[in-house]
Design brief:
Strand order of the largest sheet: 1-2-3-5-6-7-8-9-10-11-12-13
Strand content: over 45%
Shape: globular
Order of helices and strands: HEEEHEEEEEEEEEE
CATH class: Mainly Beta
Radius of gyration: 22 Å
Structural class: mainly beta
Distance between the termini: 69 Å
Low-confidence stretches: 2-22
Length: 285
């Protein structure tokens, strides 16, 4: 029994040491968009000031490019309007994220590895739930919408700085107004803007959460069954530790009888490091 105890001691102590060493390393991870993967801090959708009236289900493939990190993932979205377009809910989920980081990016983010053995790392992401409520509909003035979003802590691979393993939430008001609309409503040019608040938990013992001002503005052009949308969205955190991302997002849609092909391009600025290319299929009901 004495010899078994000695063997157990020499086998178990290195394991504890390695676990403690990595636990110390996770305390160095900076909880901000600049030092995490592209899906860790979801940017709230800039809505049009109106609640959607039709159900939507989308499957989207995304490719995020940054010189120190290349990420691919599958994105799922479901939109459920209620009360004839006066309110609704939306659920999104990042699935099967695969990434490949350079050693320099891994070290900068205090991550564990660039990839797992046998190929690029793969993991599931966060679930995001959003609720929105129509506050005002006015052709003379503006349409106004209140939006509340919650990011769960379901994402994996905190050790690789892919997802934070902490919750986040945001609240915003969006407004929209048609600048031009044809009599048959097939041709529309619309502007939209939003302002709100974004908050997420951190690993700091002194500052347990980071608060940010959320903003955005954009234009939408609809030409029969084709639409083109471009907007600028971002938030500004008060820690100034890589928490001030800005995104220029573009979306081109082609629709036919409830079937929609959706193409996306996003250019990251400031603390948003990635350019994103995506293609999705949307089914309307």
């Amino acid at each position: 029994m004495k010899y078994i105890s000695v063997v157990f001691f020499f086998l178990f102590i290195p394991t504890l040491a390695n676990a403690q060493e990595w636990n110390d390393q996770t305390l160095l991870i900076v909880y901000s968009p600049r030092y995490f993967g592209p899906n860790a801090f979801p940017m709230p959708e800039l809505r049009l000031g109106t609640a959607p009236e039709r159900y939507e289900v989308e499957v989207r493939g995304e490719y995020h490019y940054y010189t120190g990190d290349q990420t691919r993932n599958l994105f799922m979205r479901a939109l459920l309007p209620f009360f004839r377009g006066k309110a609704g809910m939306e659920a999104t989920f990042v699935m099967f994220e695969r990434f490949r980081m350079t050693p320099e990016t891994r070290d900068e983010r205090h991550a564990e590895s660039t990839e797992t053995s046998g190929g690029p790392s793969q993991n599931n992401g966060d679930v995001v739930l959003t609720a929105f409520f129509q506050l005002l509909r006015s052709e003379r003035w503006v349409d106004a919408l209140f939006n509340f979003g919650l990011k769960t802590a379901s994402g994996e691979r905190l050790v690789d700085a892919r997802f934070t393993d902490e919750t986040a939430y945001w609240m915003d008001f969006s407004v929209g107004r048609d600048l031009f609309r044809s009599e048959n409503r097939k041709y529309v040019v619309r502007m939209q803007a939003m302002a709100g608040f974004y908050c997420w938990m951190t690993n700091s013992m002194k500052l347990r959460q980071n608060d940010a001002a959320l903003f955005g503005a954009g234009l939408l052009g609809t030409f029969d069954s084709v639409s083109l949308r471009s907007d600028l969205t971002g938030f500004v955190g008060y820690m100034n530790n890589g928490d001030r991302p800005l995104m220029w997002r573009n979306n081109l849609r082609f629709g036919y009888r409830g079937h929609i092909l959706s193409l996306y391009y996003t250019h990251g600025m400031r603390d948003s490091l990635y350019d994103t290319y995506a293609m999705g299929y949307v089914r309307e009901f």
